[in-house]
Amino acid sequence: MRSVTVGPRPGKDAVDPLLGGTRRLIVHGEDADLAAVLVRLLRRDALATEVGYLPVSRRSAAAANWGLPRSFTAAADLARTGTARPQPLLRDDNGGVLAGRGVVPDLHGEAYCDATRVFRGRVPRLVVDAGPDGLRVRGGRGVRAARGRAVQIGTTGATPVRDGEPFPREITRWAWYRHTEPWHPVLPH
Hints:
- This protein has four helices and 13 strands.
- It has helices at about 10-15, 30-45, 60-65, 70-80, and strands at about 25-30, 50-55, 90, 95-100, 100-115, 115-130, 135-140, 145-150, 150-160, 160, 165, 170-180, 185.
- The strands form two sheets. Strands 3, 4, 5, 6, 7, 8, 9, 10, 11 and 12 form a ten-stranded antiparallel β-sheet that branches. A three-stranded parallel β-sheet has the order 1-2-13, with helices on both faces.
- It starts with 11 loop residues before the first helix and ends with a strand.
- The model has no long low-confidence stretch (mean pLDDT about 95).
């Protein structure tokens, strides 16, 4: 297996050349790096590529949500030799992918998870987790927990944070939703 080092948040120039004939990619980085690779797989119609993930942080929401081992050695062994299985891929309506956790802090407005209203008014934060069950919404006081296919948010103005990276501008509408095709992460059985 060959190793190629690319910078953080790899884009088209770094990821696309690696896709020709590659059956498995192993991403060693932060959740936002994994999401950046998934965006490239999505845009290149290469979601069948197997993806192993080695988080650099023990606080990785993606690793926790997908049940990856906490030990680096165990995670590396899994990424190299484990079995990839199709899993739900979460996208947003601004061209991104959610690998682990999305947070919208200080939110004034309302949100729905499928047909369930999860809040109306002002809440300190709304949290959306990606994982094997698809999309999960939570947030604490004032937010009704829910699972579903999509969450839609309307607000007077907020800045979503995708996998630890703040969106570059304030939004008034936002949605995370399950893509029609799965991605193929290497996961424990």
